[in-house]
UniProtKB/TrEMBL annotation:
It comes from the Bacteria. Belongs to the helicase family. PriA subfamily. This is Replication restart protein PriA. CDD domains: DEXHc_priA. It comes from Fertoeibacter niger. Coiled coil: none annotated. Its cofactor is Zn(2+). GO terms for molecular function: 3'-5' DNA helicase activity; ATP binding; DNA binding; hydrolase activity; zinc ion binding. Binds 2 zinc ions per subunit.
């Protein structure tokens, strides 16, 4: 196939509408080509689509309608179509839903919006008013280049009428300019910091890999502060030198601002930014520029993987172990895995950077599929913080206090020295449980299988599952006794009370995602803390992610055992990663750090591994357990989540599915359940889960598709397939 279709020829068009299949249309006047964005009639509507291939057949050719118009947008490249198709197959997502991810550019196909710009005209008067002369001076300084009205008014310090007056005289020319101005170029040859020690070899290896081109994945492992970012920015520099495009994925918007500033220092300009906080206009511009190859460097959220890069040369997944890379709603995909797939199709390098890699990436490196590069010591600091456990069994704390004496003394000492201490507790709100002291009733959410969490700042109880809130009840909703409702257990807000009482003169800051209205407010608070605006920081897991607090020398973990309960096979891995990340916040550069972990089971193997046991031995032991259990990364898994307002229906349907396991048995896969899902009720819908386990090489997706297609779903029942579920 040439990819060109003459007027009237039948072509297959994929639309963004949930029909699940490619539809046949006739090429419009002037013909069309593979990858063209088009507008096609669908019923009474006109919808967005892409010319996906030749005709699919199965339609009456006489009834195939012509394509409405070919949009004025850069056509989708073969590479992107291949990526969407492969991603759809892997995640068992209908193609239209994948296409929607790739067309999140507002106004796709509309002519670029224009705006008025100004430059010096021919009839420049010799004499003019003071204000007019200032305008002319500014334009002269631009040497014939066009300036926007906003810039011109700001620089000349005049009102718009002055400029309009000059336009009338012919001294200034007004014209239209496309809004989509190019991004300022980045200069890869500006001198970055000189790499040192292990950084040199890692940097050289990555630069060489990018220079050589072709696909390859590298796991870049090194403790926080070891210089991973500096090293991968060298690879980005090489990519830019080659004239190719680089993409860096970050797990959180709050981290982007810091990153952008750092890139500006390194390359003289900022990368383009892509995430949910970016304006529509800006997104549109970015999408166009990326497609035109004029945005050389993009930093953003996981959805940036679906941008139409013209010549992708490098993808970096920073903090690759981060759980937020898994999209848990809509299309269920893991950005790390999709980054590797995207790069394999584009034929480019991927760097997965982390201090505490996922077991998946660790195992891929062990198996030789990924190259592994280790950065040893932290830059300028001898080693990891000194980590110790505080055995809480000996502490005899009253039931409403959580800071042990040894931890309190350590905080006192740091604050007295003008340094900062971080108290880490991964629980938002005031108290995780509200209980009636008369009857034992615990307040739960009306719509979810979850306890309501008291939030004192909001003065309400909040469901962390669905966000529903209700006032704190005076009387028990169950036994109606008044005045006996009591908080049980600590959240960061309650810990803040204890800190205020125990350290009355210290300046305290609480960092919890729910306490900030916007990413900007959070960023400002983080900036203020970094600059020394607090003595004691109380934080949830947002503090574990990459933020730089130069004065922080002590980390106290309030409850190191928190993640170890439950039956999830990933609990050990997650706890290890989180504790190591948090501890890594202590001590940068010249100030050595200390991390104290409060635990009721300090002899637990995971706690011991965190405390500086042999890290590789920990990963090997974890790997062995997973291998024996036959679960990822040594086996394959999928979760099937069924949900319905009708609890009997959802269990019956699940049981019937489990009975008809023929297609699964044929590939040697097993099905477990139905069992209540990890969260058994959300927003009034009952949820059950089936887990499917298969051997590593088994054709799981095909079998799953055949399996679930056997049963027709009732209208109010939803079925979602989660390949590689995050908990099992
Ligand atoms: P990581 O990404 O591993 O946390 P960074 O790249 O952020 O580490 O490095 C930590 C700090 O040390 C940063 O402020 C960085 O600029 C600095 N740094 C790292 N390597 C060097 C180097 N070779 N020369 C100068 N400063 C460095
Ligand atoms: Zn709820």
């Amino acid at each position: 196939m040439t990819g060109q279709f003459a007027e009237g020829a039948l072509v297959g068009v994929l639309t963004t509408q949930p029909l699940g299949r490619v539809l046949d249309y006739r090429a419009p006047e002037g013909g069309c080509a593979l990858g063209d964005f088009v507008e096609v009639p669908l019923g009474p509507r006109r919808v967005l689509g892409v010319v996906w291939g030749g005709p699919q057949g199965g339609f009456d050719p006489a009834k195939c309608r012509p394509i409405g118009r070919v949009l004025d947008a850069p056509p989708m490249r073969d590479e992107m179509r291949a990526f969407l198709a492969r991603a759809a197959d892997y995640t068992l997502t209908p193609l239209p839903a994948m296409l929607r991810l790739a067309t999140r550019a507002p106004g796709l196909g509309d002519p670029p919006a224009t705006r008025r710009v100004y430059r010096l005209g021919g009839d420049v008067p010799a004499r003019a008013t003071e204000a007019r002369l200032r305008v002319l001076d500014v334009l002269r300084a631009y040497g014939g280049a066009a300036v926007t009205l906003a810039e011109l008014l700001a620089e000349a310090g005049v009102g718009a009428s002055v400029v309009k007056g000059l336009v009338k005289t012919g001294a200034v020319v007004e014209e239209d300019a496309p809004r989509d101005l190019p991004y300022p170029p980045l200069n890869p040859d500006r001198q970055g910091p000189r790499l040192m020690g292990d950084q040199v070899m890692a940097g050289d290896a990555l630069v060489a890999a990018v220079a050589m081109g072709g696909y390859g994945t590298t796991l870049l492992k090194g403790v926080t502060g070891s210089g991973k970012t500096e090293v991968y920015l060298e690879a980005v520099a090489e990519c830019l030198r080659q004239g190719r495009q680089a993409l860096v994925l970050l797990p959180e918007i709050a981290l982007t601002a810091e990153f952008l500033e750092r890139v500006e220092v390194r390359f003289g300009a900022r990368p383009a930014e892509w995430h949910s906080g970016v304006t529509m206009t800006e997104r549109r511009r970015l999408w166009q520029m990326v497609a035109a190859g004029q945005a050389g460097f993009v930093a953003g959220a996981r959805s940036a993987l679906f941008l139409p890069f013209r010549d992708l040369g490098l993808v970096v997944v920073d903090e690759e172990h981060d759980t937020s890379y898994k999209q848990e709603e809509g299309v269920l995909y893991h950005a790390r895995d999709m980054a590797v797939l995207r790069a394999a199709i584009a034929g480019c390098q991927v760097i997965l950077a982390s201090a505490t890699p996922s077991l998946e990436s660790w195992a891929n490196a062990e198996a030789g599929k990924y190259t592994r590069l280790d950065l040893g010591a932290r830059f300028g600091v001898a080693e990891l913080p000194d980590m110790r456990a505080i055995d809480m069994r000996g502490e005899k704390l009253p039931s409403d206090r959580w800071i042990s004496e040894p931890l309190a003394r350590a905080v006192d000492a740091r604050v007295a020295a003008g340094e900062q201490a971080l108290l880490f507790l991964n629980r938002r709100g005031y108290a995780p449980v509200t209980i009636c002291r008369a009857c034992g009733h615990q307040v739960g959410c009306d719509d979810c299988d979850a306890r309501m969490v008291e939030h004192r700042f909001l003065k309400r109880l909040v469901c962390h599952q669905c966000g529903a809130t209700k006032p704190m009840p005076l009387a028990c909703p169950s036994c109606k006794v008044e005045g006996r409702m009591a908080p049980v257990g600590p959240g960061v807000e309650r810990l803040a009370e204890e800190v205020a009482a125990r350290f009355p003169t210290a300046r305290v800051a609480v960092l919890s995602s729910d306490l900030f209205g916007s990413a900007r407010a959070l960023k400002e608070q983080i900036g203020a803390i970094a600059a020394g605006g607090a003595d004691i920081i109380i934080g949830t897991q947002i503090v574990a992610k990459g933020h730089n607090f130069p004065l922080l020398t002590l980390v106290g973990v309030i409850d190191a055992d928190l993640g170890l309960q439950g039956s999830d096979l990933r609990a050990a891995e997650r706890t290890f990663q989180l504790m190591r990340q948090v501890a890594g916040r202590a001590g940068r550069r010249d100030k050595p750090g200390v991390a104290l972990l409060q635990s009721y089971q300090p002899e637990h193997p995971v706690i011991r591994a965190i405390l500086g046991g042999d890290e590789e031995a920990f990963w090997r032991a974890e790997a062995d357990e997973r291998r024996i259990a036959g679960v990822p990364p040594y086996g394959r898994m999928a979760g099937i989540i069924l949900s319905s307002p009708d609890v009997a229906q959802v269990f019956d349907f699940g049981a019937e599915l489990a009975r008809r396991d023929g297609p699964l048995r044929r590939i040697g896969a097993q099905v477990f359940g139905p069992a209540p899902a990890p969260i058994a009720r959300v927003r009034g819908r009952h949820r059950v889960r089936l887990l499917v386990k298969a051997d590593k090489g088994a054709p799981l997706q095909a079998a799953l598709a055949e399996w679930v297609a056997q049963l027709k779903q009732p209208a109010n029942l939803r079925l979602a397939i989660d390949i590689d579920p995050q908990s099992f």
